[in-house]
Amino acid sequence: MLRKKNVIYLTLLLLLIISFLLYFQWDGFSAKSDQNKIHSIQQDIFIEHHNNQFYIKQIIPSLSGGNYTIDWPQAANNRECLNENNQCQWTNDEKTNVKIKSGKITLKYTIT
């Protein structure tokens, strides 16, 4: 039969093992969820209306470098992305994923 002292040591050892396992599991989970964080940005939006069309221009003054997904409105036509060197680098044919170095970016599109 186990002595009371041995049961206490065994219980403490098991609690220590469970604590380490939970810590490493949570650390891995939180590192993965940080990659998918949505960051808010400051932007200026200009809207003009001519001939039954809305002309939208979004200016983002400072954007850090990286890959971004642009969620265009469903009815958006004539999509343009301009950076300080004129054209953004699209990473797909649908013009929804863009690679930005850093700095100012301008998005233009029309809605009919």
Automatic annotation (TrEMBL):
TM stretches of this protein: 7-26
Record key words, sorted: Membrane, Transmembrane, Transmembrane helix
Organism whose genome encodes this protein: Heyndrickxia sporothermodurans
Keyword Transmembrane helix part of the UniProt annotation: yes
Protein name from the UniProt record: Uncharacterized protein
Keyword Membrane recorded: yes
